[in-house]
Amino acid sequence: MDRTHLITVVSEKVLLAIIGVATCIAAGQHLYSMYLSMQIVLADLFLLFIFTEILAMVAAFYSSKRIPVTLPIIIAITALCRLIVMQNKDMDALIIIAEASAVIILAGAAYIMSLKDKISLEKLRDRK
Fold this sequence. Notes:
By secondary structure, this protein is an all-alpha fold. The protein has two domains: 1-67; 68-128. It has four helices and no strands. It has helices at 3-37, 42-64, 70-86, 93-127. It is globular and about 55 Å long. The mean pLDDT is 88.
């Protein structure tokens, strides 16, 4: 293994570990702020889902040495849903329609990517 590849692999693992730790800290801070306010709203739950999905993405990398493309797409869908929920009633309807359209497009992309993974796994089984 050459030096550049080794540096890339090590830095990738270190940065993902930092992302995992930072996500845990952010989740803890958010849970603490929810405790202090004594209130849990839907936007808080969406944010906790985002934290969980980020941790799942880091765990998926460490277990399989790759990040499935669908996980970041799911995180983006959750973040957009959180934006839609957090908006007040005075927001322009076109913005909400655009965000909802983005969710539909991302959902379609996640579905297509899951089909690609399924087909790839079937091809791999056929080779064996």
